[in-house]
Design goal:
The complex is a heterodimer of chains A (about 700) and B (about 150). Chain A has about 700 residues and is an alpha+beta fold. Chain A folds into three domains: about 160 residues, Aldehyde oxidase/xanthine dehydrogenase, molybdopterin binding domain (Aldehyde Oxidoreductase, domain 4, 2-Layer Sandwich); about 160 residues, 2-Layer Sandwich (Aldehyde Oxidoreductase, domain 4), CATH 3.30.365; about 270 residues, Aldehyde Oxidoreductase, domain 4 (2-Layer Sandwich). In chain A, the strands form seven sheets. Chain A has a seven-stranded mixed sheet. A five-stranded mixed sheet of chain A has the order 12-20-19-18-13. A four-stranded mixed sheet of chain A has the order 21-22-23-26. In chain A, helix 2 packs parallel to helix 3 and helix 12 crosses helix 16. The radius of gyration of chain A is 27 Å and the shape is globular. Chain B folds into two domains: about 70 residues, Roll (Ubiquitin-like (UB roll)); about 70 residues, [2Fe-2S]-binding domain (DNA polymerase, domain 1), CATH 1.10.150.120. In chain B, about 40% of the residues lie in helices and about 15% in strands. Chain B has a five-stranded mixed sheet, with helices on both faces. In chain B, helix 3 packs across helix 6. The longest helix of chain B has 17 residues. The termini of chain B are far apart. The model of chain B has no long low-confidence stretch (mean pLDDT about 95). Classes of the chains: A alpha+beta (about 700), B alpha+beta (about 150).
Chain lengths: ~700, ~150
């Protein structure tokens, strides 16, 4: 048996009390640095704790993403919240229960083995003792190392984790008051920012504001603050229309052309000899345009200065880095800044939520009162960071039996990660426009096996010789960001497209061909279960089926998809079958919700989405310019989880995008008999593809 | 310049003073403390701000307050207070993720269910409401249940 997995956050925050404490009224205070982005992590963390503590889920109050209270776990990213954050809470709450029982045993002069917990009450031989977590809350010492005591329940002893639980926050999201967007602070005004059209633009002829609105300006950071939200909005828009901007150089390079241009850095991430082994060569190239996060709600933050103490409420993925980044940009002592997470609209990666937090802090400082800052729809489409344009070229060489013996991938993409990183690289949009401007950092990609642009460019298939090269284009006329899966979406589609071509070259069934290149029994089980779900197939005119598989990051959940498409003037996905093994699924219903949400989003990316540029100038301002998948276009979904519940939770939130995109692209190929090489597969792209 | 606009909000007569061009959405959220209706795009494209005007779902982000003088407006608060069966169905199906779009979807779909629409016409009607998390399938399953209940009564 391998050594037990110790989640990194528990190493950084080793004490039980770093994660959990008990109130004398019976409430359990659970602490997490992971935040609720709409993915359901709140419910999953509470399920885990309820199980280990033997309390009702309703007794647990979770504080998440509070810089002064929560363990500074870092960002909520990478489908790692359950794997790292959840396992930390499991070990800490398990230890809390054991320490509580030992403490009770001392007081009762009993042995801990005779004691148990029921709904927070401590029982001896099944009888009440008058003691409870609540009654012992003041005398117990939880400033002890969790790992010394933690003995989490085995999977068959759990009664909450592993079973479908309703989201604890869903009902509240149907109405007012739950979201940061609804928050009110005494004396709060509303703010809107006026986005400079370029980095070098200088505002001239800024007119006076009307209706009591106040201009807050620092260099080229311009914003309008008003008591009435609509006055803030309409005055900001009036200003944006009448201000003259000087010195606005706009790049002439379209983001896709940038991929064809000079490369500043070429890194060989994986290398091998014998790369020219094999007799038959099969190649594929896939180009993906710039994508927008396109959350339905624009980003929002509330900032309040109390003397020199700044409090910011933000729906950031990483309040800890945001706090340090704000300190740097505002040139303000970090210990005077508190950042508190509050839920916003759906977050699929590094969006504008951190940017608007700086905007709010600047506006509140300038206006001398609390300010709620909200970006507008066109701010999001024009100025939020984007999922970058990418091109992936892959080549496989097959031996005489059709088996792939060597593989290489060339990924051309800017780095996906430009997150606010604290003191060294605050990376908040407005910092570039201040009187003392700070340039944005260059961004970076995590090293393999995580990877950024190159995520999942390393095949999960058994191939003897693999080389992967990541190329960074010199010209990137927009700000990039990490969005759900990063490079995995493009790379998995390219790889699964390549596998399809290789199977054809080998004269083998496409699914059998993949199985022949896999040895991991969990991967094989997923693919076999999926194959069995979809027989028989109807092969009407214009109908195509496509398959896609990946193990996200080659280390998270295993997932396979089959898509059925109907290609007429446009591509319509009628059905998606999906099988996943994510190991232990804390909330299977929530896991499936995440997987299916990722599938719908991936279909939308694959079929419809592209941020439109003329040269280097972004022309995408509204939903009219950037259609996403609509209600009438979503497929029937058929999803199964088959993972072993006694295995580590592997993460689920990002694992379906690549395989779903690949299934759609391969289904279109199956229907049309041509290999798509450019996304999105819009009507225009189909015409180009067929001509 | 601001004027006083009077209309019926979820069955109660209310007045709001604002510039007549102020969209209804801002009056609902900030003047009348009805924050369930959400600002998405401000252009009537995404449906997050859907309310019901004299029985018909409309977007409130681009509807001037002056246009609702004397009219009947229903919002998600009214639908929640009335305990519309779609609420329970959405929760049963766990039909949502971030939920930013849900008040608008609940408002439009509940109104269409009550007006006798079929699942197909409701699905097409909901093309006016965007959901980015990809919960459409579950939302449609919830609607299908409620329409079936309605049609068996």
């Amino acid at each position: 048996m391998s050594a037990p997995f110790i989640p990194p956050p528990l190493i950084a925050f080793p004490l039980i009390r770093d994660w959990v404490s008990f109130a004398s009224d019976g409430e359990v205070h659970l602490l997490s640095g992971r935040v609720e982005l709409g993915q359901g992590i709140t419910t999953a963390l509470i399920q885990i704790a309820a199980d280990e503590l033997d309390v009702d889920m309703g007794a647990i109050c979770l504080t998440q993403g509070h810089t002064e209270i929560s363990p500074a776990e870092g960002p909520t990213v990478g489908s790692l919240s359950v794997t790292f954050g959840g396992q930390s809470i499991r070990l800490a709450t398990s230890a809390a229960r054991i320490v509580m029982l030992r403490h009770a045993a001392d007081l009762l002069q009993a042995t801990p083995d005779d004691l148990s917990v029921q709904d927070g009450d401590i029982l001896k031989d099944g009888q009440e003792t008058g003691m409870s977590y609540a009654s012992l809350s003041q005398s117990v010492n939880l400033a002890v190392a969790a790992l010394e005591y933690a003995t989490p329940k085995l999977s068959d002893e759990r009664r909450v984790a592993g079973k479908a639980a309703p989201r604890v926050d869903l009902a509240a999201r149907l109405g007012a008051g739950y979201l940061l967007h609804d928050m009110m602070v005494e004396g709060m005004w509303h703010g809107r920012v006026i986005q400079p059209p370029s980095l070098t633009a200088i505002a001239t002829d800024v007119p006076d504001l009307r209706d009591g609105a106040v201009l807050v300006r620092d260099g080229q950071f311009l914003s309008v603050v008003a008591q009435d939200e609509y006055i803030a909005l309409s005055e900001a828009n009036r200003l944006a229309n009448v201000i003259t901007w000087k010195d606005i150089p706009v790049s002439n390079t379209h983001p896709i052309e940038g991929l064809d241009g000079p490369i500043v850095e070429s890194e060989t991430l994986y290398d091998a000899e014998n790369l020219d082994a094999g007799s038959t060569e099969v190649s594929i190239t896939l180009t993906k345009p710039v994508l927008s996060h396109a959350s339905i709600g624009p980003s929002c933050a509330v900032a309040q200065w109390d003397g020199d103490a700044l409090t910011v409420w933000a729906h950031s993925q990483n309040v800890f880095a945001l706090k340090a980044s704000l300190a740097r940009v505002l040139n303000h002592p970090v210990e005077k800044i508190t950042v508190i997470f509050a839920p916003g609209a759906g977050c699929y990666g590094h969006n504008s939520s951190d940017d608007v937090a700086l905007d709010a802090a600047l506006m509140a400082r300038g206006a001398g009162r609390p300010v709620r800052a909200l970006w507008q729809r066109q701010d999001e489409f024009l100025h939020a960071p984007f999922n970058p344009a990418m091109r992936t070229a892959m080549t496989a060489r097959l031996d005489e039996d059709g088996k792939i013996v060597s593989f290489d991938a060339d990924v051309i993409s800017p780095p996906h990660s430009t997150r606010p990183a604290g003191m060294d690289e605050p990376n908040l949009r407005a910092q570039q426009f201040l009187f003392d401007p700070m340039p944005m950092g260059p961004g970076n990609d995590a090293p393999q096996p995580m990877g950024g642009a190159d995520r999942n460019a390393v095949p999960g298939y058994e191939i003897a010789a693999v080389r992967v090269v990541r190329n960074r284009p010199a010209v990137v006329p927009y700000r990039t960001s990490a969005m759900r899966g990063l490079g995995a979406f493009t790379n998995v589609i390219a790889l699964e497209s390549l596998m399809e071509s290789c199977a054809e070259a080998a004269g083998m069934d496409a699914i059998e061909y993949r199985l022949a290149h896999l040895t991991d029994p969990r991967a094989i089980s997923v693919i076999e279960a999926l194959r069995d779900m979809v027989e028989p197939r109807d092969m009407a005119d214009g109908v195509g089926y496509g398959f896609g598989y990946a193990r996200y990051k080659n280390s998270a959940g295993y997932l396979g998809c089959i898509a059925r498409v109907i290609v007429e003037d446009e591509v319509r996905v009628s059905d998606v079958w999906c099988v996943a093994d994510v190991g232990e699924a804390i909330n299977p219903n929530g896991t499936i919700n995440q997987l299916e949400g990722g599938i719908v989003q991936a279909i939308s990316w694959a079929l419809k989405e592209e941020v439109r540029f003329a040269g280097g100038q972004n022309l995408t301002e509204s939903w009219d310019d950037y259609p996403i998948l609509k209600f009438s276009e979503v497929p029937e979904m058929h999803t199964r989880l088959i993972g072993p519940q006694d295995e580590m939770p592997l993460g689920a939130g990002e694992i379906s995008s690549g395989p779903a995109g690949a299934a759609v692209v391969n289904a279109v190929r199956n229907a049309l008999g041509v290999v798509p090489d450019r996304l999105p597969l819009s009507r225009h792209a189909l015409v180009t593809l067929l001509s | 310049m601001s004027g006083k606009i009077t209309f019926t909000l979820n069955g109660t007569l209310v007045s709001a003073s604002a510039k007549p061009t102020t969209p209804l959405l801002f009056a609902l959220r900030n003047t009348l403390d009805h924050k369930g209706t959400r600002l998405g795009c401000g252009e009537g494209h995404c449906g997050a701000c859907t309310v019901v005007l004299d029985g018909f779902p409309v977007t409130s982000c681009n509807l001037p307050l002056s246009a609702v003088e004397g009219k009947n407006i229903a919002t998600v608060e009214g639908i929640l207070d009335a305990g519309h069966p779609l609420i329970a169905a959405l929760l049963t199906h766990q039909a949502g993720q971030c939920g930013y779009c849900l008040p608008g979807i609940l408002t439009r779909a509940a109104t269409m269910i009550d007006a006798g629409d079929t699942v197909d016409t409701i699905r097409d009607g909901l093309d006016a409401n965007l959901c980015r998390c990809g919960a459409q399938g579950r939302i449609l399953a919830a609607i299908t249940d409620v329409v079936a209940q309605r049609d068996t009564q």
